[in-house]
Write a structure and sequence with these properties.
There is one protein chain. The protein is α/β, with parallel strands linked by helices and 646 residues long. It has a domain at 440-628. The protein has 14 helices and 32 strands. Helix 6 (191-197) links the parallel strand 12 (181-183) and strand 13. Helix 4 (138-150) runs parallel beside helix 5 (164-176). Residues 1-6 and 642-646 have low confidence and may be disordered.
């Protein structure tokens, strides 16, 4: 029970213990847990007086499972524990959240799995995600990687867009400071480059494809050179078989979709949108090609395992239909389908994963001195791994969670998401916007952003005239997740002159200020009012983008299409994006923004009609709720100039 967190000594007696230590076979024994660690294991172990003795007869005890690839969300902590997953590796996240989430007090309060983190993934420009840290040269790696390491990252993650020179320096510098590097094969590089340079781990299977080939265009023999190359190397692999296999699955109307009850409204909406697209677009021909691809990949992974390549199973949760916790079990099932014995797959996701993550001395096996992460199930998992999906008991860092505790956790998650869905249907209140002294309002309004049928945020905004100093664009955004954003930016002669951004969540406050001066734009960051750093750029910035409608309002006054520089936040670091503006019919503004796109349409008075942003596979739609012209004409769109003019 949860109350057992107060106990210091627990004995699990009479279960069949799978230590997962090399050469040891399962045996009936008692496991003694003291202060969150395994104290001793033995068949004839004497239980000290005062210990709580729990009957484990008929149960099989295995180490807690390790998921080698997730994108962690704090609200998913219970889902991992319910599935017996006691440690996860996060492959890139919001720097402002992930290190806080890893804190011991937060882990234990969940309760949640241990977190192994990279902080944020390193990517090139444009990045695949706004949470990435952009590095475009070796010099930027030397600048940013040590700062990431100083935050306490456990390893370094890279993405497809990392330029070759930056990737090369990332490997060198990471190894110098004692960090491993994991990621897919970056564009412009090959699997041979990764092996030659000594990258530690590979994500996904595309790196095995010959140059220019696709899974549909190859035969198994075409994979042999890459397979043999990796077999001769020390490169480990997280294959992510389920990421590919689930693409050809289309649950029907009679399938059980109850797992959506465990997810927040925006996840559930995203997943259902993905499902509807598959139902509409996935042909039988595409399914047949997908089945052939899966067969090739299963054959490849089995051959790699037979050759001794270290495999680290990962789920890629919470991407659509890759659920936290259960997604790892789906991946393990595919490894068994590939022909790898269940006992060996279990070893991969316990001892093997711990060794590859640098945790072999503390996790992954049941032995004295190891963290007491233990999953208890009702039959032998080495005969059928499916029994691990619903543990009878989970011991998480020494805290015993009985079956009724796990059931209560599940009910609590469902109730919390029911309440979240109720709240998501309610309007979000936003404070009034405050203008600086002397500013004359020209146009104001309110807007609401929706994704996957759920309200994400509400915003109030005002554009005001400040005479010879130009115009100020002011916005206040209240997000459904509790974030409050206030942005004021002043634009004159088509260029950003200064701005102030304030992000507030609970009691935490982060601010960024910028000022054009002396031919450069200087940017200062503060956390909780304390100075963090000051940087500068010589780019001719047009605006600051934080997802506010003021981005579109500034661009509505641009008179010509073309490229321009915008400031945005990659995690909590300012970054400059080279974006492209196109002028559409009826004054619409179309913007390519790195890895995303935006289309904005306007009311006759210049207010927002609608903004659609594509971010990854999802769309965020922002609708103008109301606008106010303060007795004047508002802010009609600027007349167009010929292409190339400004």
């Amino acid at each position: 029970m949860l109350a057992l967190a107060l106990l210091q000594l627990v004995a699990l007696k009479g279960g069949t213990v799978h230590t997962m230590l090399p050469g040891e076979v399962p045996r009936v024994a008692t496991v003694l847990v003291r202060d969150g660690l395994i104290d001793a294991i033995g068949a004839d172990l004497a239980v000290p007086p005062g210990a709580l003795v729990l009957d484990a007869r008929g149960q099989h005890l295995v180490p807690g499972l390790i998921d080698g690839m997730v994108h962690h969300d704090l609200e998913h902590d219970p889902l991992y524990v319910l599935a017996g997953v006691t440690c996860v590796r996060d492959m890139g996240n919001d720097l402002g959240r992930i290190f806080d989430a890893r804190a011991r007090a937060v882990r234990d309060a969940g309760p949640g799995p241990e977190l192994v983190v990279c902080g944020a993934v390193l990517d090139g420009s444009p990045p695949a995600t706004t949470e990435a840290v952009v590095v475009t040269s070796a010099a930027e790696v030397d600048d940013k990687l040590p700062r990431l390491a100083a935050l306490g990252c456990d390893f370094v993650a890279t993405h497809l867009g990392l330029p070759p020179a930056a990737w090369d320096r990332t490997i060198e510098l990471s190894h110098q400071i004692g960090l491993s590097v994991w990621g897919p094969v970056p564009r412009g590089l090959t699997l041979l480059d990764l092996v030659a340079k000594g990258q530690d781990g590979l994500l996904y299977l595309e790196g095995f494809l010959p140059a220019g080939a696709t899974w549909e265009s190859i035969e198994s023999a075409d994979l042999a050179p890459a397979r043999e190359l990796v077999a001769r190397s020390r490169l480990a692999l997280t294959p992510l078989l389920r990421v590919y296999a689930r693409r050809i699955e289309v649950p029907g109307p009679d399938d059980d979709l109850s797992l959506l009850d465990l997810l927040a409204p925006h996840y559930a909406g995203y997943w259902m949108q993905d499902l509807h697209q598959r139902r509409e677009l996935l042909s039988e021909e595409a399914r047949a090609a997908g089945r052939r691809t899966t067969a090739l990949q299963l054959e490849l992974v089995r051959a790699l395992w037979e050759a001794g390549v270290a495999l680290v199973p990962g789920s890629a949760a919470p991407n659509p239909w890759l659920p936290p916790g259960a997604g790892l079990h789906d991946e393990l099932a595919l490894l068994v389908e590939a022909g790898i014995p269940p006992a060996d797959v279990l070893a991969m996701t316990t001892r093997g994963a711990a060794e590859q993550l640098g945790l072999g001395q503390v996790r992954g096996t049941l032995a004295a001195g190891r963290v007491a992460d233990i999953v208890c199930v009702g039959s032998d998992p080495c005969a059928d791994l499916a029994v691990l999906r619903r543990p009878a008991r989970v011991v998480l860092r020494g805290v015993v969670l009985e079956r009724e505790d796990l059931a209560r956790m599940r009910r609590d998650v469902i109730a919390r998401q029911d309440e979240a869905r109720r709240r998501a249907s309610l309007p979000i209140e936003v404070p009034e916007v405050e203008l600086c002294e002397g500013a004359v309002p020209l146009l104001g309004g309110r807007a609401e952003s929706v994704a996957f049928g759920q309200i994400l945020s509400a915003e109030r905004w005002i554009v005001a005239d400040v005479g010879a100093r130009g115009r100020v664009y002011c916005a206040r955004i209240a997000s459904a997740d509790g974030m409050q954003t206030t942005l004021t930016q002043r634009v004159a002669d088509g260029l950003l002159q200064d701005f102030e951004l304030l992000l507030t969540r609970a009691s935490r406050q982060f601010s960024v200020r910028g000022l054009r001066t002396g031919g450069q734009f200087r940017i200062e960051r503060r956390v909780q009012g304390m100075h963090l750093d000051t940087t500068a750029t010589h780019e001719r910035l047009v605006l600051v983008d934080v997802g506010s409608v003021t981005t579109a309002l500034v661009l509505a006054q641009q008179q010509a299409a073309g490229h321009f520089a915008a400031l945005y936040l990659e995690d909590v670091e300012p970054a400059v994006g080279r974006w492209e503006l196109a002028l559409g019919a009826d004054g619409a503004r179309l913007v390519r923004m790195g890895s995303s796109e935006m289309v904005a349409t306007f009311r006759p008075d210049g207010g927002i009609e609608q903004i659609v942003r594509r971010e990854g596979a999802g769309l965020v739609r922002t609708a103008g709720v109301a606008s106010e012209t303060y007795g004047g004409p508002g802010l009609p769109l600027a007349p167009e100039k010929p292409a190339g003019g400004r």
